[in-house]
Specification:
Blueprint (H helix, E strand, L loop, with lengths): L11 E4 L4 E3 L7 E6 L6 H12 L1 H6 L2 E7 L3 H11 L4 E4 L4 H5 L3 E4 L5 E4 L2 E5 L5 E6 L9 H10 L3
Parallel strand pairs: 3-4, 4-5
Antiparallel strand pairs: 1-2, 1-5, 3-8, 6-7, 8-9
Length: 156
């Protein structure tokens, strides 16, 4: 489990455009990491559409959004195009990053194993976790107001 004050584990994942993205490449910026169970599902769509619609708020707080699931890059590309997402969707197909962040279900719905839990993390400019929320219930949304408040506090 990742906790506030801890250095965020670095990772490299491919995005929906098949480009490798490394967390440490965002040093000097705040990063919001959103883990979510699966593309094309209702709650995940609601969460990421809200993020899309509020991207200017995150950008004004010097924050980059990285949304992570265990879906393939091909699935993420299709979903990103369909929903006009304007931030990185990253594929954790091998489940290593979800596990490193304590954000993975051993058993999910319909007998699926190794699906990302819904979670939100705020990583500051120096790579330190400033907010961590991992939800057990995939039907709930993370507290995005708390995420924004944390980002605002990092502006001081």
């Amino acid at each position: 489990m990742i906790t506030v004050g801890q250095t965020a584990p670095n990772f490299k994942l491919f995005n929906s455009e098949k480009q490798e993205i490394e967390l440490s490449s965002f040093n000097g910026k705040n990063v919001v990491i959103l883990f979510y169970p699966q593309a094309f599902t209702s709650v995940c769509t609601t969460e990421l559409c809200d993020t899309r619609d509020n991207l200017k708020v995150y950008e004004s707080l010097n924050a980059e959004i990285l949304a992570i699931s265990v879906d393939s890059v091909f699935t993420l590309d299709n979903w990103k195009q369909q929903q006009n997402f304007n931030f990185n969707l990253l594929s954790d197909f091998n489940k290593e990053v979800s596990e490193a962040y304590g954000s993975i279900y051993e058993n999910f719905a319909f007998g699926m194993k190794g699906v990302s839990k819904r979670a939100a993390f705020v990583i500051d400019r120096n790579g330190v976790v400033q907010y961590a929320e991992v939800l057990e219930n995939a039907g709930e949304l993370p507290n995005l107001n708390a995420v924004k408040t944390t980002l605002q506090q990092l502006q001081d």
